Amino acid sequence: MATAAKKLSKLEHPPRGGQATMVEAIRQGLWEEMERDPTVFLIGEDVGAYGGAFKVTEGLIDHFGKERVIDTPISEAAIVGAACGAALMGMKPVAEFQFIDFISCGFDMLTNYAAKSRYRWGGSIPAVFRGPCGSGVRSGPFHSLNAESFFLNTAGLKIVEPSTAYDAKGLIKAAIRDPDPVLYFEHKKLYRLPRLREELPEDDYVVEIGKARTAREGRDVSILTFGAQVLTALDAAEELEKEGLDVEVIDLRTLAPMDKEAILASVKKTSRALILHEASLTGGIGGEISAIISQEAFEWLDAPVVRVASIDTPVPYSPPLEDYYLPQVKDVLDAARKLAAY
Amino acid sequence: MLYRTKGGDKPRPYTMAENQKQNGNRKGPRRRPPFQIRINTKYAPRKVADGQALSCITGSSLTDRQMLELYRYLKLTRLVEERIVNLYRQTKVVGGVYRSLGQEATAVGSAYALRPDDFITPIIRDLGACFVKGIRPREIFAQYMAKAWGPSAGKDLNVHFGYMDKGFIGPISHLGDMIPVMTGILLGARLQNKDIVGLAYIGDGGASTGAFYEGMNFAAVQKLPLIVIAEHNQYAYSTPTTMQTLLRNLAEKAAAFGIPGYIVDGNDVIACYEVTKRAIDHARNGHGAVLIEAKTYRRKGHAEHDDQRYVPEGEIDWWETHNDPVDRVETFLIDQEVATKEKLEEITTAVQREIDEDSEWAESSPMPEAEGAVYGVFDNSIVPPAFRPKILEN
Known about the structure:
The structure holds two protein chains of two kinds. Chain A is an alpha/beta fold. Chain A has 13 helices and 14 strands. Chain A folds into two domains: 2-200, 3-Layer(aba) Sandwich (Rossmann fold); 213-341, Rossmann fold (3-Layer(aba) Sandwich). In chain A, the strands form three sheets. In chain A, strands 3-2-4-5-7-6-12 form a seven-stranded mixed sheet, sandwiched between helices. In chain A, helix 3 links the parallel strand 2 (40-44) and strand 3 (69-71). The longest helix of chain A is centred in the N-terminal third of the chain and has 15 residues, at 22-36. Chain A is globular and about 60 Å long. The termini of chain A are far apart. Chain B has a single domain, classed as 3-Layer(aba) Sandwich (Rossmann fold), CATH 3.40.50. Chain B has helices at 16-23, 64-89, 104-111, 127-132, 137-144, 178-191, 210-221, 269-287, 315-322, 325-335, 341-364; strands at residues 2-4, 11-13, 39-43, 119-121, 162-163, 168-169, 198-203, 226-232, 235-236, 239-240, 261-265, 290-295. Chain B has a six-stranded parallel sheet with strand order 3-11-12-8-7-4, sandwiched between helices. In chain B, strands 1-2 form a two-stranded antiparallel ribbon. Chain B has a two-stranded antiparallel sheet with strand order 5-6. Chains A and B meet through helix 4, helix 5 and helix 6 of A and helix 6 and helix 7 of B.
């Protein structure tokens, strides 16, 4: 009883800024936007009383009511479709996929309805589609997806994926305020990672969609990455520093529309590009980034563009298998050393 | 907890005696009585004596003026489609042509029951519903001819466009997708305290899609005022309904969602109006979604190029001679002395004039500028238009 009362009082006064993990940062962002704008509402499976599978929406139903935090049947097509319809009416829905793997069940509605509506007839769909993505948490083939490349080839969808608590909050707020559909991917491994806990500003802020971030400055090699792999890249960079290699890490943050300027500026500075991502290699976003670099910064390159990504298999469950599947710090080190020595 | 008594219409709570009878000494929640499949067949097709021509139902609340307006929309639909076919034969239509010949009454009658602020989302064979919702023939002609002055400015075809202010949301080619979208429209409207209902159309083929089930089920659970008209026109492209579902009546699918189902004679424009009006009353009063099955027949192929080789011989002729929606309402209006033959001809002439004017207007429209393709993927004040990248520019 005492804990329930304590919990309630905590929820009635949500923290604004302060020390926050990524999951708290996203929740703060949702909360503040719902408070600021009465048209913002949440829709998804178990987002209400249960607070979502990862508790991202915990407490929001108590504060904003079940009209604005809507639990749905297990129907991703209905969730995405209903979000589209409500958005056409001028609402700002934030739809949750319990795991981003289930985005495949709403794929048709996303790629055919949400993405094309403005282009076809000017129907603006200011909706956010968010959910936990990513592997490395022993969740097996159906709870570990990185879905970005499924959507990269569909004009009309913006895609963001933060790797810090600050960006998570700033990007969810920017996504909600954006007049177009935004896919917001949250790497589940980062949700409660103590390493990502940081002090957030108390003031309202957004992180602009379409802008990459320099996570670490360097002169010798550029690692272009996003999401949880930013941490892999930073760990590798630290190791390489000991060997006298000065690595720059670019956190893309937005995958569509991509910040080409930031990518090209970094590559033109270091002349060596290593692309690191968690989805499988073939057909992954790395191929697109590599093509941009080859086409627009060819003369600046001192070595071929290198991609480090997961192997071309489904995501396996057992730890030794999944560790083999995923790019590890060691893989990045090897690739960066070869790149530097080329 | 509320429930319906078997015969009654109004939900009421359990009485204490009923509770005890149901539960006995059992602990735990009260049991809900099983959902009864209830299909309302008041407006279903009726047989008539041999030799007697089919007409429309009597006892409607429509005024004479309204009935003539319905007639006008029917004729408008049929004649606009005929004009589109002419334009198609003159190779002025860029894509395919989709007809609603023989089933115009369903779209016209049902859409006519809506208030101006209500929403519809038609499918390809509901051109009549578009006209009732205030779309002009010129817009349809321009769309078919891929002209710059069409509502989508050449970016999409036929009825694939929309006007939020008219409550008109055009469909996409993926059947079933518009049911969840309309559910969202109604969800948004409820959050905005707007008292509107939504009318979505689907066919016997589209009713097999997952999106149809997901959307209807979500609308039912949320008690949203969604009315879905399932146009049972016997064919989905070439596939007969017997290969879509084992159900004889699409209305029986309502049982899957726990909502009322209606069967209506889809070729009786007045019955279509009346059944939709009844469904709208049900929905607007907070009782939730309704599924209406309209029994009708698609006399043309899926699109103009379809030779209908899969249709048994004589079937189309039978429907044309015995059960044509325009013939039926003409018989009705003259029998009931709502109008004379001359009056109906006068209406047709006026419709023809409008079509001539509008198709001329659409033909006079330029084609869109090629560079128009780059705009509008995103809000271009935020994301620049998608111009073709210059390759290896010096």
